[in-house]
Automatic annotation (TrEMBL):
<dbReference type="InterPro" id="IPR036390">
    <property type="entry name" value="WH_DNA-bd_sf"/>
</dbReference>
<dbReference type="GO" id="GO:0002183">
    <property type="term" value="P:cytoplasmic translational initiation"/>
</dbReference>
<dbReference type="InterPro" id="IPR000717">
    <property type="entry name" value="PCI_dom"/>
</dbReference>
<dbReference type="InterPro" id="IPR045237">
    <property type="entry name" value="COPS7/eIF3m"/>
</dbReference>
<dbReference type="Pfam" id="PF01399">
    <property type="entry name" value="PCI"/>
</dbReference>
<comment type="similarity">
    <text>Belongs to the CSN7/EIF3M family. CSN7 subfamily.</text>
</comment>
<feature type="domain" description="PCI">
    <location>
        <begin position="1"/>
        <end position="62"/>
    </location>
</feature>
<dbReference type="GO" id="GO:0005852">
    <property type="term" value="C:eukaryotic translation initiation factor 3 complex"/>
</dbReference>
<protein>
    <recommendedName>
        <fullName>PCI domain-containing protein</fullName>
    </recommendedName>
</protein>
Length: 62
C-alpha cells in the first residue's frame, strides 16, 4: 500500500505543483494527521522534492 501511495503522489506531483492536504487525503486515503508524515517519508526517498506549507495546508512541489 505504501508504494502505491508513493506512486500516486508522484503522479500528482508531476501534474500539480501545489497539492492541498484535502486532495492528498482523498487521493491517497490518508487520515488528516497522516499527511505530513507521508510527505516527509516521500521526501526521504529522494524520488520527489517538495515542502509543506502548514498555514495554507498544502504541499508545494519543486
Amino acid at each position: 500500500m505504501a508504494k502505491m501511495r508513493l506512486l500516486t503522489f508522484m503522479g500528482m506531483a508531476v501534474e500539480f505543483k501545489e497539492i492541498s492536504f484535502d486532495t492528498m487525503q482523498q487521493e491517497l486515503q490518508l487520515e488528516e494527521d497522516q499527511v505530513e508524515a507521508f510527505v516527509i517519508d516521500a521526501v526521504r526517498t529522494k524520488m520527489v522534492y517538495c515542502k509543506i506549507d502548514q498555514t495554507q495546508r498544502k504541499v508545494i512541489v519543486r
